[in-house]
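EI: anyone free to look at a 217-residue chain?
SC: sure, send it
EI:
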Amino acid sequence: MSKLSKPTVLELPYQKEAWNLYNNMLNEVERKKRTRENTDDIKFFITQSIRDIKQTLNEGRTEAIRNIDLELESIRRSYETEREYTNPQQELLQRQDFDLKLSNMEDTEFIDYVHNRIDNGNRMENYEFQRVKASSKERGLQDRLRTKLAFYAEETCQGQEYRLTEEYQEKEQLREDIQVLSTDFLWDYSVLDGEMSMTPYQDSMNGALDGYDVNVQ
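SC: here you go
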């Protein structure tokens, strides 16, 4: 979360709506006290307001996560569409050439090829990676190359390269931020010190009516 601006998660509509409900509750309680409304009526109002805030946060979070999931899926589908080959025949020939290249390698040459390809940052297409992985197993070299290939697959998101895009990562981070923030509290952020703060709105009854006791029949 950036220290220079309020985190995106706190700018979501349901977060703002929950804060509005909370502030309106506080203002309304003070108004009711000034007009000397019954204590029990004010307590009922506070209880109902707390329920409304909780519902707003829970439903808002559920909807926000659902929307983000749809957006993430849209990015994935868009990526899959972009990966469709404009020249399938040429792609097939390139794959055949690559398969032939691998099959002609001795084991030591194959191992050197894998290490050099990964260490030099020469990205493998998903097909190439899968064939290298399969070939290492066929050659009985999977134990020697497992760590190398696993690290490469994780770092490059093989077959899921869309996960490396800024748009995808931002949405994924927002989803995580939404899940982290408990709906038992209202959250705020101090731009000055870069820290999150929480307000236990469910304790709003505590102290709200200290010294106030009006029961008009």
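EI: DSSP finds seven helices and two strands in the chain.
SC: 👍
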